[in-house]
Write a structure and sequence with these properties.
The protein is of the alpha/beta class and 253 residues long. The protein has helices at residues 17-31, 49-55, 82-87, 98-103, 108-121, 133-137, 141-153, 158-161, 182-200, 220-224, 241-249; strands at residues 6-10, 39-43, 62-65, 92-95, 124-129, 165-168, 208-212, 231-234. Bound molecules: phosphoenolpyruvate. The site of phosphoenolpyruvate has 13 residues, from strand 8.
Length: 253
């Protein structure tokens, strides 16, 4: 099945509102020729969501959040809920990023609850999974990634699975300049697709599986040409309009 490729820029904890507007303006001018051929989203920090939403008006670029809390509202200081993200104009939200798993106590169970909360309001989750270097070196990559996918999707009906994006992000490749080789990426993406088939049947063919981890203009096209790589989750290179656009061009079939 032909899946529209999907590239999302994760800005992490970067950009004031003014800087965010400036980046969106630069992207807008460069993106016009690729509009409609690749799905594109940007995930600014919460404080810049509304500035970016306003700056994106009339563009095909979609708004994403970097995280969410699973409750709708309540005494959860510092958290932001799925209905709030919807209200802020988000179409997507990243969950389970390895930085959240490693630094902020995210678990497979909180990822699952976040996926349910997002789907409940119609926001499309981007579920991040990936192994550490120690896990890869111990030959545990497929076991770890398989467990993360299976736990995130537990109990979801197949039509909901079809609405997900899974981002395979080897932890050792994030922000390090080290990228998975095409063979390493395809091995894991293929395994994720086959697990999704076991869990959700035909819906698996509709799930986009992004690769993330030091995606740059010079490696994006090769990675996204792989059969089960349907786009990219881009960190550092998404902060520079020229680099991000070159990566998006690499996603055009
Ligand atoms: C990320 O944080 O999702 C990521 C892939 O970062 P980078 O592209 O900088 O490795």
């Amino acid at each position: 099945m032909a899946r529209t490729r999907f590239v999302c820029g994760n800005w992490k904890m970067h950009k004031t509102q003014a800087e965010a507007r400036e980046l969106v303006r630069a992207l807008g001018a460069l993106l016009a020729p690729v509009a409609g051929r690749v799905q594109v989203a940007v995930a600014p920090p919460f404080t810049a969501l509304s500035a970016v939403q306003a700056a994106l008006a009339g563009s095909a670029v979609e708004l994403a959040a970097q995280d969410v809390h699973w409750e709708k509202q309540g005494a959860f200081t510092g958290e932001v809920s799925a209905p709030m993200l919807l209200d802020a104009g988000c179409r997507h939200a990243i969950v389970g990023h390895s930085e959240r798993r490693q630094l902020f106590g995210e678990t497979d169970e909180t990822v699952r609850k976040k996926v349910v909360a997002l789907l409940g309001v119609g926001i499309l989750p981007i579920v991040c999974v990936g192994e550490t270097l120690a896990e890869r070196e111990a030959g545990r990559t497929l076991e770890v990634v398989g467990r993360q996918v299976q736990n995130a999707l537990q109990g979801l009906p197949a039509p909901d699975v079809a609405r997900l994006t899974v981002a395979y992000e080897p932890v050792w490749a994030i922000g390090t300049g080290k990228t998975a080789t095409p063979a390493q990426a395809q091995e894991v993406h293929g395994a994720i697709r086959s697990l999704l088939r076991d869990l959700a049947g035909e819906a698996a063919e509709r799930v986009r599986i992004q690769y993330g981890g030091s995606v740059k203009p010079d490696n994006a096209a090769e990675l996204m040409a792989l059969p089960d790589v349907d786009g990219a989750l881009v960190g550092g290179a998404a902060l520079k309009a020229d680099d991000f656009i070159q990566i998006i061009r690499g996603a055009i079939r």
